[in-house]
Amino acid sequence: MPEMRILIIKSGWATPIINMIERRFEQGDLVFLGSNGILQYKEASTDVRGIGLSISDELFSLAIGNRIPAAFDGHLRDFQMHLEPAQVEYLDQLHSILYQHLKQQNGSSQVTLHLLSALLWYVDNLWSQHEQTYRENQTRQQRLFTDFIQLVSEFAPTHHTIDYYASRLCITPRYMSTIIRQVSGKSAKQWIDDALVTRIKIELKHSDKTIAHIADDMNFPNPSFMIKFFKRMTGMTPASFRR
What we know:
Elements: E1 4-11, E2 13-18, E3 21-22, E4 25-26, E5 29-33, E6 39-44, E7 49-55, H1 57-64, E8 78-82, H2 85-103, H3 109-137, H4 140-155, H5 162-169, H6 173-184, H7 188-206, H8 211-217, H9 223-234, H10 238-242
Antiparallel strand pairs: 1-5, 1-7, 2-3, 2-4, 2-6, 5-8
Helix pairs in contact: 1-3, 2-3, 4-5, 4-6, 7-9, 8-9
């Protein structure tokens, strides 16, 4: 998804895969998905309903200005938190006012930007309260895994080795690999490879780039390396997947 999104689940449930991690969203949950995030649909109840915003980076910059809320400063690709009914109602009202204003034929763009800014800052305030409690309840190993996944979801297309992520986390590759497997049941290399193959699939499905171009973008030595990697991971060649 090229643009960021904020969603509030008002009824039902859904279990999508967000940036490689399976999540469960239920009534009362607020979900933030950063721009260029990867969402894969899995399951949802028939009664799932919600409200949301889709915000381009340009619109976000116009609404926020120079002071960026911590929740949206780019260090998080996504987050989820459960809200109290009164908080859901307050966001619902803000969303409704913004929606009604956008429907007006001669609505002021400045009013639109200020309403959007108010909503974003309110979400940031909710997130700051939630984040403090969440981080306190996480173990050191869980925090390391969370930080690792954030890095992989952002850099896997161009950095394919365990050493890169261990150096970013300031730990040894062996220690990182041990912790990632203990917390998730998968090796660090599996997470990196899964993220990389997902990005290749996206390029094959949603762009007209040549396979050679994609291989170059993804930092493979040459197209044949990418073709062999993709076939090992998926059982088919990139050309077959694209067809």
